[in-house]
Design a protein that fits this description.
Elements: H1 3-13, E1 17-19, H2 21-29, H3 34-39, E2 45-50, E3 58-64, E4 70-76, E5 85-91
Parallel strand pairs: 1-5
Antiparallel strand pairs: 2-3, 3-4, 4-5
């Protein structure tokens, strides 16, 4: 697990988190409930680590909803700050753009 993901898991576990307006819109549009994702953050699978992102370190993780459907979430930490963990976006991955396990992008 990356250092960024470890920090995010800890912060989310302590309820030191914020959901961006964009993420909230995406969650609503895709019918995704946030609470199961928060409760299951410790089981998140790291897909990509953006530790040098200019807005602050971030990670793309794979989680599953209560029906076992995949969800990608981007969590970040504000640049220069230790908290909160920020849910930047969430979406259901397009199977045409990801491998069968939704853990790697398909390069065309």
């Amino acid at each position: 697990m990356s250092e960024t993901l470890q920090r995010i898991v800890s912060l989310v576990g302590d309820r030191k988190l914020r959901v961006s307006a964009h993420a909230l819109q995406k969650l609503i549009a895709d019918g995704i409930l946030i609470e199961p994702l928060i409760e299951g953050i410790s089981e998140a699978i790291l897909v990509e680590d953006y530790h040098d992102y200019f807005k602050g370190p971030a990670v793309l993780v794979l989680q599953f909803d209560t029906q076992g459907m995949p969800i990608h979430l981007v969590w970040g930490l504000p640049a220069g700050a230790q908290e909160p963990a920020v849910l930047v976006t969430a979406y259901r991955p397009d199977p045409d753009r990801w491998t069968d396990h939704f853990s790697r992008r398909i390069v065309r």
